[in-house]
Amino acid sequence: MKIRRAHLPNTDKVFIYENKKEEFSLIAIPEKYWSIVVKYEEAFQEVDEKLLKSLIKVTDEEEAKLLAGKIRHWITEM
Would you say which domain of life the source belongs to (predicted)? Predict the structure, then answer.
């Protein structure tokens, strides 16, 4: 499991668990009571949309866009 710092005012740590055998990543932000599963086979645009739609439910739109971009970058570098 990786722990990343988001460096945003309302969000500190982002936890990323990668399951290579079953080909998915689980991303969680405990401070926001938020988590999501992203499968490897999903295209980048699908991942961006999925993250943004989910994050907007727990934070404002600007922070959701920043977080979605950071998270996508982190899961693609793994």
Answer: Bacteria
Structure tokens at 26: 């689980």
Expressed in angstroms, the distance from the first to the final Cα of the chain is 11
Residue with tokens 């399951």: 19
Tell me the one-letter amino acid at 52.
Answer: L
3-state per-residue secondary structure call for 3-64: EEEEEECCEEEEEEEEECCCCEEEEEEHHHCEEEEEECCCCHHHHHHHHHHHHHCCCCHHHH
Q: What is the pTM of this model?
A: 0.88
Measured distance CA(41)–CA(55) in Å, rounded: 21
Report whether pLDDT(10) > 80.
no
Residue 76 is given by DSSP the state: H
Length of the chain: 78
The domain in which residue 24 lies consists of 2-77
